[in-house]
Design brief:
single chain, mainly alpha, DNA polymerase, domain 1, hpI Integrase, Chain A, 2 domains, 3 strands, elongated, CB, XerD/XerC family integrase, DNA_brk_join_enz, Integrase-like_cat_sf
Length: 228
Amino acid sequence: MNRPPKEPTDLSPRQARDRFLDKRSLENSEKTIRSYQNRLTQFVVWCEENGVDRVGDLSGWLLDEYERHLRASDNAPSTQKGKMTAVSQLVQYLEEIEAVEDGLSEKVHVPEVSRQEESSDKMLDTEDAKALLQYYRGSRGSFGTPDHVILEILWNTGCRLAAARGLDLGDYSSDHQYLDFRHRPDSGTPLKNDDQGERVVQISDPVCEAIDTYIRHERSGKRDDSRP
C-alpha cells in the first residue's frame, strides 16, 4: 500500500479514490462501494492519462473536460449523471480534508436527465438512488432543486412519477409534514386508481427540508397553486 503524502493536495487521484472508498465503507453496503469504485475508476484512469498526478491540480476546467470526455464516449445520459455524481461526492470529500480548493465541488456539473428518461420504465437501482440522495443532501448547489425534490418524494412515499408531478403547493404541509395526493382529472393530474388512490402521506425531515428549500428559492414569485 502506498504511503500517503505529507500534504493532502499531493494525493494522487487513485489514492484519493481509495481513501474516499475506505470512508464510505463505514456507512455504505458493499454493493454501493462497488458502484462507487466502478464509477470513480474511470475518472482515475482519465486523470492518469491526462497528466493529473495530484488532486491539488484539479480545477473546474479539468472537471468540465472529464464530463466532455464522458459525453464523447457515448455514455447514456443516466450513466453520465451517475458518474459525475460520484465525482462530485469525491470532490466534496477532498474539500473536507483540504486536498482541493474550497468550493471546487460546486464546479462539478451533474447533468440533468430528460423527462422522457425519468418517465421510462427502467427502475432506478436502490443503491444508485441512495447515492443520489446522499449527493443531493450534501450539495449546496443541488439541494432543493426540482430533481432533488422529485427523488425525495418518490423515494420516501413510493408514489408514481405522475403523482409526484401532479402535486400542488397546497398539497404540502411543512408544519404537519405531509403530502396530500389528490385525484384531479379535470386539471390533467389524475391518479392511477382515481379517487381510491387519494391519500395523505407523512414525510420525514429531509424531505420537508428539500421541499421548503425548493419553494423558497425555486418558486419565489410564482403562483402558490402552480406545480413544479
